[in-house]
Design a protein that fits this description.
The structure is a homodimer. In chain A, helix 1 packs across helix 2 and helix 8 runs parallel beside helix 9. Chain A is built from twelve helices and twelve strands. Chain A is α/β, with parallel strands linked by helices. The longest helix of chain A has 18 residues. The first copy, chain A, starts with 6 loop residues before the first helix and ends in a 10-residue tail after the last strand. Chain A is about 45% helix and about 15% strand. In chain A, the strands form three sheets. In chain A, strands 2-1-3-4-5-11 form a six-stranded parallel sheet, with helices on both faces. A four-stranded parallel sheet of chain A has the order 7-6-8-9, sandwiched between helices. In chain A, strands 10-12 form a two-stranded antiparallel ribbon. In chain A, strand 3, helix 7 and strand 4 form a beta-alpha-beta unit. At the A-B interface, helix 4, helix 5, strand 2, helix 6 and helix 11 of A face helix 4, helix 5, strand 2 and helix 6 of B. Chain A binds a DNA duplex through helix 2 and helix 4.
Amino acid sequence: MIHNPTILDIAKALGISKSTVSRALAGAENVKPQTRKAILDMAEKMRYKPNYMARNLTKSRTRIVGVVVPEFINSFFSRVIIRIQNVFEQEGYRVLITQCNESWEVERKNLRLLEEAMVEGILISVTEKGRNSDYYRELAAKGIPIVFFNRAEKGIEASQVLIDDYKWAFFATEHLIGVRRRLGQEKPRIMHFRGPDNIDLSGRRYWGYADALMKHHLSLEDDLTVRVKGTSREDGFMLMKGCIEKGNVPDALFCFSDHLAIGAMLALRQNGIEVPHQVSVMGFSESQSALVTMPALSSVAQPLEEMGETAARLLLERIENPDAGIRRVILDASLNIRGSSNPEFL
Amino acid sequence: MIHNPTILDIAKALGISKSTVSRALAGAENVKPQTRKAILDMAEKMRYKPNYMARNLTKSRTRIVGVVVPEFINSFFSRVIIRIQNVFEQEGYRVLITQCNESWEVERKNLRLLEEAMVEGILISVTEKGRNSDYYRELAAKGIPIVFFNRAEKGIEASQVLIDDYKWAFFATEHLIGVRRRLGQEKPRIMHFRGPDNIDLSGRRYWGYADALMKHHLSLEDDLTVRVKGTSREDGFMLMKGCIEKGNVPDALFCFSDHLAIGAMLALRQNGIEVPHQVSVMGFSESQSALVTMPALSSVAQPLEEMGETAARLLLERIENPDAGIRRVILDASLNIRGSSNPEFL
DNA sequence: TTGAAAGCGCTAACAC
DNA sequence: GTGTTAGCGCTTTCAA
């Protein structure tokens, strides 16, 4: 590797001291305009690039923040991250992105990586609830500000940016009930594919579903709640296939995720069951594929950009002002009704 | 921020010199086992974490590599990146990920960012051909090894990991011709949605298409090649809609990307034209959505994991041995034939 | 307005 | 085996 020019090189070339060069480059006031100009010109000419390691070492700052997400195959986290990057780059920070492949062990490794890289703050969507609580707490105690987004861990001194999963699951379920009733089914059987137990959201979405049934005087039968292991299309397909084989076909299905819903739709179609005429289907989280399916998938859309923006700003605030308190922001989501739930939208 | 323990803290606590601590921590041989043990224990006890900035400053290495991709909303690059990360983390490197939102200006900014972060190597899939050639060349000249993957820039001293786009476009087109002939159409009209001119691959895929037509004695009519601006689903939809309105409906369609193909399929369906019976459709690049469409989309599948692995290894090799030459690796792809092109696969 | 000098945390000769 | 010392590139007192 060729030697990069340093402030000393500039200083020598100009016959001045490196302190002055440092000051000029840092934009300090107390440098004679001529000297400053000479320095800036020379820096340009030599293609000087500051050495961040050295700069950060003296300042004992890194201007790096870390992001930890469960995965980024799906566009969900990618889109949030894009916004996070935008905000931080604008503010002169670098963003270290890590993903865990849905494994909490890898999440732990990633956190360690970020800690060693001396990030000044961490944005995280937790992979599996409860697993790394101790680590989050340790980092927080060490003074590294943390912001949870999308999936938070309870009892940690950290900010949170979430949507109200309970509420939107409730609305989604109500929508399904409404559609089926308009089709003349007074007591529709609304099924729910409940998310994995190790994800916090699963419970909240389930309770939204359950309470909506209650409100509308529908009984919460056991065989209407199906617990999933994974959240992939294949999982959804297999589960629905199983239900069909058992003769357990509902009038509507509300899924923990879009992928589950898409898989379920495929299974229904493969068995000659028509969506939405026979079964209305809803997902959650608005994947890229929601518009591609036939019929298009109804889903709960989360404000991804806003989530990224908010999380980034919250972290920034805490980094620049350590006295800033933690905050909890609940963002609004929306119901995107399409053909998979409502025949009128076909 | 609380003061992190340094090797000096450990040394003082043990009443020895920091050099010895440094040696023990680095795993050097010439440290008395007892001393070593004491040091390691104390480090553990004090929760010592090495300061990478300082370490790298002295070694004038960073052990960071940078990745630059056009986008990561689609799973394509995300999957490649996952593998890249795996390889580098295993080797003790950190990976700085950046994405350009398909803008070459942002790509330039990202390259600058990586350069300033003093990455030891760069993995890049170029956003727009020709735009940042000068910068790639400058980085290469500076001694920063570069590996292009998926989309390369010509004339740069850098390794490349690609698939043979020409060949696979050729095969895809041949497949379409074969299917239509088996359906009794001796002279099928095979249409191509040609990718944007600012992407290198567009031309190569087009030539594969064109040569396949030639080989099978089909004429290359003007209205069979449609140039696209974007590569999104909407673009595909609008283009096909336009064709249909002009009465220009082909017997088969080969698209530059899966998204274009999916959009085109939607337009066909909306106009009551059946896929694949009336029109066979093929995409390229195997998006996540290919299996969700109805019928499932035939496509050229690229070996994403292998691409990531190979690119990472190539870069690693050049980082650890600056004398290692540049290499050009062509990976194999495959044709995934599904219902959108061949009625037998419905 | 500028320079000299110390120091950020660590590594690596070079001594002993 | 271990300690001493210099230095990586930069910022920041403190003097001048």
